[in-house]
Amino acid sequence: MKRAHRSNAGLSPRRRIAGFSLVELMVALLISLVLSAAALGILLSNRRVHGATEGLGRLQENARTAFELMARDIREAGGNPCDFRMEVANMLSDDVNWWTSYETGISGFDDGAFADSEPDTDAIRVQYFEDTGAVTTAPMASSSGVLAVNNIGAIEAGQILAACGFFPDTPFPPDTPFLTPFPLTIFSAGKAGGAITHEADDGNLSDDFKNAGPAWAYPAGTIISRLRALEWYVGKNDRGGTSLFRRQLTYPAGLGPTMGEPEEIIPDVTDLQFRYFTRGEAEPDDVPASWPEVTAVEVALVMEAADTRTSSVDGELIQRRLVHVIALRNKL
Predict the structure, then answer these.
(1) Do 46 and 299 contact (CB within 8 A), yes or no?
(2) Number of folded domains in the chain?
(3) N or C: which end of the chain has fewer CB within 10 A?
(4) What is the dihedral of CA 279, 284, 286, 290, to 10 degrees?
(5) 297: helix, coil or strand?
(6) For 56, how many CA atoms within 13 A lie in the half-sphere containing its CB?
(7) Residue 196, Cβ neighbours under 10 Å: how many?
(8) How far apart are CA 311 and CA 41, in angstroms?
């Protein structure tokens, strides 16, 4: 049987090149747009989640760093390498600068009272003496004599130092000696050879180590420590925002002690608040009745992630308020 052979010659040109109709193209385009919109929505959602997560992580890391650095200073407030309960004898002739008055070791400013802080934020000042590693190698010849030390290289002229030590006493019964502390003597240091001087020309009230009572001379083994004085506050940064700043006492060669330039510690801090626990009180106060009775400090930081609003949650910048309580090691 012969199969019939059909020819395309009789078909119209439109029938021979038939393709997608306009309706089919519009449907395909609509489906493509829907799929593209869904993919774009997922992409934008992932971007917002990533931005929020990254911003929150940065806030937590910055807060951890801020609390660690502040705690290192606040914890030592009012301390010295010997004993915070020692009587203090201040020989410094400077009675103008705040760091020369060593009565409490800690003081605060409430609601923008500190000159460099942002309105409605708090600030704090901390003082303590840190060990220099230098100790006297021989007793002082007299109360106006020099202090020979094992490491004069650890001392710079003009530094504010403290001498603290103990001398043996023999109470009743005579075979049970114990150590009685000298007062903590604060003075401005000079250097002479391998020894520390404390003369009036060095910035002191007199050449003698003395307080209201008789003059005294320190024994060998006296510990020499150096004053640290710091300020913590929230201020404006050079980018138009606010940051956590620290400023600390420095000793430029030949210029004597002076407060250094502000150091930006943590960015994106919008608020800083302190409350103070005092001995015998269960609740903290914004301003304690007695600074010497402060035993712990509550620090509250408000931080804002530096993300654009389009990459943050619900179009708002991420904010967190974080609280940390720091006990004063020398008051426990």
Answers:
(1) no
(2) 1
(3) N
(4) -10
(5) strand
(6) 10
(7) 23
(8) 13
Burial class (CB in 10 A: 0-12, 13-18, 19+), 147: buried
Within-domain flag for 63:
yes
DSSP conformational letter for 91: -
Residue 44, domain member (yes or no): no
Which H helix or E strand runs over 64?
Answer: helix 22-74
> Do residues 147 and 163 lie in contact, with contact meaning Cβ atoms separated by under 8 Å?
yes
CA quadruple 90, 91, 93, 94: dihedral positive or negative? negative
What distance in Å separates the CA atoms of residue 113 and residue 275, rounded to the nearest whole number? Answer: 15
Q: Tell me if 115 is assigned to some domain.
A: yes
What is the value of pTM for the model shown?
A: 0.78
In a domain, 143, yes or no: yes
Closest C-alpha among 70, 89, 110, 126 to residue 245 = 70
> Which residue type does 147 have?
L
Q: Which domain holds residue 194?
A: 51-331
Which of these, 77, 76, 68, 141, lies nearest to 108 by C-alpha position?
77
Is residue 117 a contact partner of residue 106, using CB atoms and an 8 Å limit? no
Give the start-end residues of each E strand in the chain: 88-90, 106-109, 123-135, 147-148, 160-164, 166-169, 178-181, 184-188, 190-192, 195-197, 223-236, 242-250, 258-259, 263-267, 269-278, 294-304, 319-327
